[in-house]
């Protein structure tokens, strides 16, 4: 392939711009705000699940408390009824009186036990309510943090977009100075070799693979016409000769 030396030199300008665009694209993909957003969103998902679990526990405890309070009321009603029978004086049999007194004492103990159950449930419900409150407060905090991160990410991304636009405009201007066939080869090589299709030959070393050329290859390049497009024998990238090539 043939191309004017000046056109080949423009490949280095093009490569520099393309490398800059690649770095900008990498920055865009790896903004620290992206990882921070993912972390915060994961935490929000955890908090949503925790809130649902805590609210479900509160609801279950509400039902449990109502059932326990109903049991207390039933025992209390029965104990009050027996106490009224005892106080009425209608029961004269010593055996019946003893049985009734025994039943009242048993109901009182049962009522006391059930009231302890109610208190224990109320304490558990208060703890569950506290967890819901704490979790919801953290949800709000994380949401605020997520909003701040989104703002920082938008600013950083806008800076990258502006720089990319300017670099892209400069690239468009450079492309006009590169022949179509040379540009096509450069683009093909860029796709094959990690975005680097052309490299300078600097003091006998290819700046694409950073390997020093042997004497045979250097002599071959020295003998090549100025408009001949030469390639690195090691990495096959386009080698651009400059005054610093060491030829």
TrEMBL record:
Pfam families: CT398_CC, Zn_ribbon_9. InterPro entries: CT398_CC_hairpin (IPR056003), Oxidative_Scav/Glycosyltrans (IPR052376), Zf-RING_7 (IPR003743). Transmembrane segments: none annotated. Residues 206-239 form the C4-type zinc ribbon domain. Residues 56-92 are annotated as: Disordered. Residues 14-192 form the CT398-like coiled coil hairpin domain. Coiled coil: none annotated. Residues 60-87 have a biased composition (Basic and acidic residues). It comes from the Bacteria. This is Uncharacterized protein. It comes from Actinomadura craniellae.
């Amino acid at each position: 392939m043939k191309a004017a030396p000046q056109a080949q030199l423009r490949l280095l300008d093009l490569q520099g711009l393309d490398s800059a665009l690649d770095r900008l694209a990498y920055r865009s993909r790896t903004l620290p705000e992206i990882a921070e957003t993912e972390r915060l969103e994961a935490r929000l998902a955890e908090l949503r699940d925790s809130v649902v679990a805590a609210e479900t526990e509160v609801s279950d405890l509400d039902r449990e408390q109502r059932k326990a309070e109903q049991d207390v009321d039933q025992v209390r009603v029965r104990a009050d009824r027996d106490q009224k029978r005892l106080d009425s004086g209608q029961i004269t049999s010593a055996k019946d009186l003893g049985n009734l007194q025994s039943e009242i004492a048993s109901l009182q103990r049962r009522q006391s036990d059930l009231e302890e159950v109610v208190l224990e449930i109320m304490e558990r419900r208060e703890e569950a309510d506290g967890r819901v409150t704490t979790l919801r407060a953290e949800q709000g905090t994380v949401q605020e943090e997520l909003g701040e991160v989104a703002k920082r990410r938008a600013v950083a991304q806008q800076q990258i977009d502006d720089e990319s636009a300017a670099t892209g405009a400069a690239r468009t201007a450079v492309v006009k100075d590169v022949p179509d066939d040379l540009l096509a080869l450069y683009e093909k090589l860029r796709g094959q070799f990690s975005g680097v299709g052309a490299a300078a030959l600097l003091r006998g070393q290819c700046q694409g693979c950073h390997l020093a050329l042997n004497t045979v290859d250097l002599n071959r390049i020295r003998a090549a016409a100025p408009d001949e497009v030469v390639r690195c024998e090691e990495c096959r990238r386009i080698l651009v000769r400059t005054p610093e090539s060491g030829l």
